[in-house]
User: What shape does this take?
Amino acid sequence: MHRPNQAGICGGKDGAESIVVSGGYVDDEDYGTELVYTGQGGNDPATKRQIADQQLTRGNLGLARSQIDGNPVRVIRGAGGDQKYSPRLGLRYDGLFRVVDHWSDTGKDGYKIWRYRLVALESTDPPPAAPLHGTTDQQTPRTEATIQRLVRSTAVANGVKRLHGHRCQVCGIQLATPAGPYAEAAHIRALGKPHNGPDVPSNVLCLCPNHHVLFDTGAIYVDGWHRDGGGRRR
Amino acid sequence: MHRPNQAGICGGKDGAESIVVSGGYVDDEDYGTELVYTGQGGNDPATKRQIADQQLTRGNLGLARSQIDGNPVRVIRGAGGDQKYSPRLGLRYDGLFRVVDHWSDTGKDGYKIWRYRLVALESTDPPPAAPLHGTTDQQTPRTEATIQRLVRSTAVANGVKRLHGHRCQVCGIQLATPAGPYAEAAHIRALGKPHNGPDVPSNVLCLCPNHHVLFDTGAIYVDGWHRDGGGRRR
Assistant: This one.
């Protein structure tokens, strides 16, 4: 079910298959059907503290890829994790979760970590086999249709879009649709846990969908602010 | 609560405030928490049949704008609608719905109609007042954060994206993110009710997010196939 013996993430550049949540990282947060999960690497297994920066490679890259592809990930909880949600002994398969966000941050120990927000799929039936010829990642769990990207809208966000005439603040494009101009609002610090960004105009950018994706994935960012990193300097 | 006396949609170019579902249009479909709603105009109130094409103006434009802005719409059901979900007498406020899709189609009577898919919000508390200065559409219902755009992913869709090297089939762009190339899959005929498009490679396009939005809103389309229209010729 989960192949690597030590690493918490089974996966690579084609996506992640599964993660183990077992209290090995000081920055992990477990809310039952929602997890804030720390990437792998850079920690001392004896003390569980971070002693080096994490890289966006191997399992860490895999989880990011699973988000981008909209593919769910198996979650396995082990003894040692949050008492409320973890088995008392051994490992327990807790179903499929989707990766809804990933970002880099400075962890409690002062080193760069990768963080992932995962949310339990409502249906956790066993994933069907991948039906398409020519795919190379047949071990990746599949569901028939998973949500890949949510764009949220608030009154403030819509006000910012109107203020900018629905033009992208990066490239200036204004998408013209039969229902009028279209743009997306990106919160520089995301709303909700764990970022708790404020829903105020100064925290909102007006972007075209392409630059919104690039912003959400960290390909572009506001100087001095990583998308969700709470103020990490570059 | 709902202002126009005859029209089923209260709204205009800034969005729709509310709709009345009362069996006035032969193409309406009511599934309780989900509606396929027909736009206004072109029908004979006496027979309820369509006698002319509908236009993407007034309330019809408003519902499309509400989808694009992610703003919910009040749904009022009246006697005369589907017996299972409608009041026996008068009008009943049934809460907030979000517009998740709109498309043009040929209705049962052979004329062009606009159709909207609406899904009930889980929370149907009364909407808060609009908090932002300078907005002109203060009558539009607001919720703090509503889902605006869902991008779904299937094994077939991900296979098509790999096949195209994550390059947009319209503009050729390949978005480079730290987690690898990004593209979105667009089903030419959408999955699920009411389109029931097949989840096969020939029904899937690989698009950048910008062209995906333009495709979903009908700004661009595949010759001979409107996005969801089931084969309407242009």
In short: Chain A has three helices and twelve strands. The CA atoms of residues 84 and 161 of chain A lie 42 Å apart.
